[in-house]
Amino acid sequence: MKRVYVNEQWCLGCHLCEYNCAFANSGARDMAVALKGKAIFPRIRVEGGGSITYAVSCRHCTDPLCVKGCISGALHMENGAVCIDRDKCVGCLTCVLLCPYGAVQPGPDGAAMKCELCLKNACGAPACVSGCPNGAIVYEERGETA
């Protein structure tokens, strides 16, 4: 299955992946209208500082702890991707504690949020990949993950 991978040696720390992710998941048609002057809630985030920066997003594990620990059944597997039904999420955030990669986060409404590979929006491929100016984020098939 294709997944998002980060080549940290190419990451500029520009945060454009975060803005593209937030815009793709906003449902708006215009990025400036969707994001200007507003708090953004991307499903990917840039970490690090100085000479080393990298993007953190869900790794869509083959045997995900977050799915196993979800008490409401909101987290589930869908075509090999770990997805969340935000209407089912009760906001206990057990998934945040269980994710070994720190990829699940509390959303603005208290429900958990995470990367779903842009499967539920019109992008067709993860927006963070197409928005990365340096090609540090790729969407490709590699060996199995966790």
The residue ranges in which pLDDT falls below 50 over 5 or more consecutive positions are: none
Helix and strand sequence: EHHEEHEEHEEHE
> Order of strands in the sheet with the most strands?
1-8
- Rounded mean pLDDT is 92
Question: Kindly, what is the distance between the CA atoms of the first and last residues, rounded to a whole number of angstroms?
Answer: 13 Å
User: Mind telling me the C-alpha Rg?
Assistant: 15 Å
Model description:
With about 150 residues, the protein is of the alpha+beta class. Helices cover about 20% and strands about 20% of the residues. The strands form 4 sheets. The protein has a two-stranded antiparallel ribbon with strand order 1-8. The longest helix has 9 residues, at about 15-25. It starts with a strand and ends in a 5-residue tail after the last strand. The model has no long low-confidence stretch (mean pLDDT about 90).
Q: How is the secondary structure organized here?
A:
Blueprint (H helix, E strand, L loop, with lengths): L1 E5 L9 H9 L6 H5 L9 E5 L2 E5 L8 H5 L5 E4 L2 E4 L9 H5 L6 E2 L5 E2 L13 H4 L6 E5 L5
Antiparallel strand pairs: 1-8, 2-3, 4-5, 6-7
Describe this structure in a few short sentences.
With 146 residues, the chain is α+β, with helices and mostly antiparallel strands. It has helices spanning 16-24, 31-35, 65-69, 94-98, 127-130, and strands at residues 2-6, 45-49, 52-56, 75-78, 81-84, 105-106, 112-113, 137-141.
